[in-house]
Amino acid sequence: MTVHLEQALAKLKTTGVRMTPQRHAILSFLLDSMTHPTADDIYKSLESKFPNMSVATVYNNLKVFIEAGLVRELTYGDSSSRFDADMTDHYHALCEVCGKITDFEYPPLHDVEQTAAHQTGFKVRGHRLEVYGVCADCTGITKH
């Protein structure tokens, strides 16, 4: 069991969330995934192991994880929500051709939040940054 999974399970325990085999499988899948899967992706990956599990079960458990602060939901326009178990400060690059989402590191833009709060009077809770383009697979260019 990875350290991240152990930490996530401990956090759920302190919030009183009962760990079912389905929850464990969904959380493990998310923590191991670098693809920012949709609920449907998660369902399709786990349906052979849990034939009685529905997409609604996956959604309901994702909501539990979001409320517990273990998962963030990424929404982009009309496309399906994607889910990310990496709660560290990081940003996303989105491919406009295939829809792939890739993480990238950049120093957190706290000054942007402070400026927004100062200029708008908002109590800023956070921000999100995405860059858009065409991934290496879609352009046929490989990274060196």
Automatic annotation (TrEMBL):
<comment type="similarity">
    <text>Belongs to the Fur family.</text>
</comment>
<protein>
    <submittedName>
        <fullName>Peroxide-responsive transcriptional repressor PerR</fullName>
    </submittedName>
</protein>
<keyword id="KW-0804">Transcription</keyword>
<dbReference type="GO" id="GO:0000976">
    <property type="term" value="F:transcription cis-regulatory region binding"/>
</dbReference>
<dbReference type="GO" id="GO:0045892">
    <property type="term" value="P:negative regulation of DNA-templated transcription"/>
</dbReference>
<feature type="binding site">
    <location>
        <position position="127"/>
    </location>
    <ligand>
        <name>Fe cation</name>
    </ligand>
</feature>
<keyword id="KW-0805">Transcription regulation</keyword>
<keyword id="KW-0479">Metal-binding</keyword>
<keyword id="KW-0678">Repressor</keyword>
<keyword id="KW-0408">Iron</keyword>
<keyword id="KW-0963">Cytoplasm</keyword>
<dbReference type="InterPro" id="IPR002481">
    <property type="entry name" value="FUR"/>
</dbReference>
<dbReference type="Pfam" id="PF01475">
    <property type="entry name" value="FUR"/>
</dbReference>
<keyword id="KW-0464">Manganese</keyword>
<keyword id="KW-0238">DNA-binding</keyword>
<keyword id="KW-0862">Zinc</keyword>
<dbReference type="GO" id="GO:0005737">
    <property type="term" value="C:cytoplasm"/>
</dbReference>
<dbReference type="InterPro" id="IPR043135">
    <property type="entry name" value="Fur_C"/>
</dbReference>
<dbReference type="InterPro" id="IPR036390">
    <property type="entry name" value="WH_DNA-bd_sf"/>
</dbReference>
<dbReference type="GO" id="GO:0003700">
    <property type="term" value="F:DNA-binding transcription factor activity"/>
</dbReference>
<dbReference type="InterPro" id="IPR036388">
    <property type="entry name" value="WH-like_DNA-bd_sf"/>
</dbReference>
<comment type="function">
    <text>Manganese-dependent repressor that controls a regulon of oxidative stress resistance and iron-storage proteins. May act as a hydrogen peroxide and organic hydroperoxide sensor.</text>
</comment>
<feature type="binding site">
    <location>
        <position position="135"/>
    </location>
    <ligand>
        <name>Zn(2+)</name>
    </ligand>
</feature>
<dbReference type="GO" id="GO:0008270">
    <property type="term" value="F:zinc ion binding"/>
</dbReference>
<feature type="binding site">
    <location>
        <position position="95"/>
    </location>
    <ligand>
        <name>Zn(2+)</name>
    </ligand>
</feature>
<dbReference type="GO" id="GO:1900376">
    <property type="term" value="P:regulation of secondary metabolite biosynthetic process"/>
</dbReference>
<feature type="binding site">
    <location>
        <position position="98"/>
    </location>
    <ligand>
        <name>Zn(2+)</name>
    </ligand>
</feature>
<feature type="binding site">
    <location>
        <position position="138"/>
    </location>
    <ligand>
        <name>Zn(2+)</name>
    </ligand>
</feature>
